[in-house]
Amino acid sequence: MTDILIKGGRVIDPAGGLDRRADVLISDGKIAKVGRVPASQITRGCKLIDAVGKIVCPGLIDIHVHCREPGHEEEETIATAAGSAVAGGFTTIVAMPNTHPVIDNEAMVQYVIHQAENAGLARVLPAGAITKDRQGKELAELGSMLAAGAVAFTDDGDGLASSSVMQRALQYAGMFDAPILQHCQDPDLGGSGVMNSGAMAVRLGLPGIPAAAEEIMLQRDLALLARTGGRYHVQHVSTAGAVDMIRSAKKLGLHVTAEATPHHMLLTDAACQSYDPNYKVAPPLRSAGDVEAVRQGVADGTIDCLATDHAPHSKEEKELEFALAPSGLIALQCALGLFAKALIDTGLIDWPTLIARMTTGPAAVIRQPLASLAAGAVADVTIIDPQADYTVDVTGWLSKSRNCPYHNWPLHVRAVGTIVAGQVKFLL
Amino acid sequence: MSKTATKRSSRKPAATATPATPVTTATPAEAEPFVWTKKHLLGLDELTADEIVHILDTAESFREVSTRSIKKVPALRGKVVANLFFEDSTRTRMSFNLAASRLSADVIELVSTGSSVAKGETLRDTVRNIEAMGVDIVVVRHKQSGAAYMLAQCLSASVVNAGDGQHEHPTQALLDIFTIRQRLGSVAGKKVGIVGDIAHSRVARSNILGLRKLGAEVFVVGPPTLVPSAITAMGCEVCHSLDEVLPRLDVINMLRIQFERFSSNLFPSVREYAQLYGLNAERMRLAKPDILVMHPGPINRGMELTSDVADGPNSAILNQVTNGLAIRMAVLFLVNQANQV
Per-residue b/e over B134-156, b at no fewer than 16 CB within 10 Å? Predict the structure, then answer.
């Protein structure tokens, strides 16, 4: 395997507390050295990457991606999702299990791993469903899936509504120390809604999903977690109240983690005014106050990690009436720029914190030995240009879908190099 | 706006309606001829006060047409109007049909209450196929909020919203406002109550928007389960007691209650609704003697209104229906004009 020398970049390694100008030498798929690499240490044929003016950090991790395979390969495949990931600077993504059929057994978990290996792009780690066929009734074989390579369990797409099933899931997954990822939305209160409850929904004549729908399920789960122990992770936090609840729960010592998406930190329900279904997401775009609270939650560490909830949908589906169109948007390929816009450009956090929320934060949620530039660590590395003025152009994206509301947005942060296990998968 | 202004704003004077002297309006005629530029009528949200007044003035001049022995003008001769009703409607559909006929347009009609998605064809495809037959104006009613907006983006024909879900019903609000102006002389400063299922009513939304733009005060009245508090962002006041607000009102618009609402727990029973929010002779004693009573129809007699009130001297309900025809003629005439500019 060819050695790679990334020269002269600002190296940020949150795990090692490192933020200084240095070279990164990769050898044999592992980090060989971070520091000044003298010419004598450079082997013949070593690939040189000039990173002056760039940021060099552990590979970015997105723990919330819908790859749509199997079942909706016309919208995305594991290969196109993994391609989008490396083009966006992500070396690892976690594939959600709400496929057709559902990833709820070890054979399905193996299938995802197999397809990811064939694609040979980003690491694609499967999440398995908590319950059989995501029906919210009977526990799926969590132990077998874990043994086959699943890294977390979730019925994402829907909240796990039954209190007793959630209690069992926390107890049982807790035995393996495996995280339960919850999409908090009470189906009874939020069931008919298609956007945030509030003045805009009233004006548009669209049924609303109140913030309480998210908070009721979260509060219940936290009450269960206090009894059962285990690891509990809140997906796509969207309300100020939910951020407060997670903050309090952490103070009480509960093992709760959380993620935030770009859209819940950059868009509000005002965007729905055009009835453009690309602004229909679950949980819905909320108020400006919620956006600010989610950003603050990321800044103070209440929210541990950033995730895209990349959710491809076909043009036909997204051209339906707002209420009939499915929820979701795609963002893998520009997410880094969006997170920087929401959190760095606003002065809320610095680069080391942003990198931590995209590397060590998500790695801790899924308990993977990734996100480190220590000598001997797996060489997953991302190179970031923090001053690349560009306009998002979704037409050239690697995703099979185009449901992206950020088309034509001006951004200035992007990934320019993505190295997975010592192999360059993307280089601009 | 006078008859002459209407004519001057048209690029094709020969095709314009030739109404008689218009009824005096409460708004002063503008100095400049008004040039209508809106190709679609999707809602009152996107209209200015001047534009709303211009529609009312244009309708005023069309009202006379219906009094002639030959009730027809050649304004839309050679044009095709497609009335696409994906949701039940009797009076709105007939009113649009008659309005288009009186303007000499050819009218085609689709009445389909089933979901087009269920049949495997999307709304977009259904309507684009109909448009391909050479349609100039598409009048659409659909149960999904935003359906008219969506069609306006994918059609080259003019789109007139005849009611989209719980969002807007602009021609209903225009005819309501027209009726208020006709009966009370003006709209500005008037206190208008809208009573009933505000949450699910496109009639309420369009009325609030239009009335506020013309300077009326709007009170929405009903139980909190039917009146979302966030509606105050549209510039109206929320009131839960009809008896409390009734003495202050110049106009009361009683919305139709859909019976399926009480099965979903939005109010306990028809009886209790009628007790709290029904307008009857006894409650009318609390109101100003000349209060204008309106209803978009069809009435559930004994529920929103008792018959003595619905058919009494304060009722403007049949005026509303008559005026609806003039309003729809005006709207079809104006959007067609804009589409030719």
Answer: ebbbbbbbbbbbbbbbbbbeebe
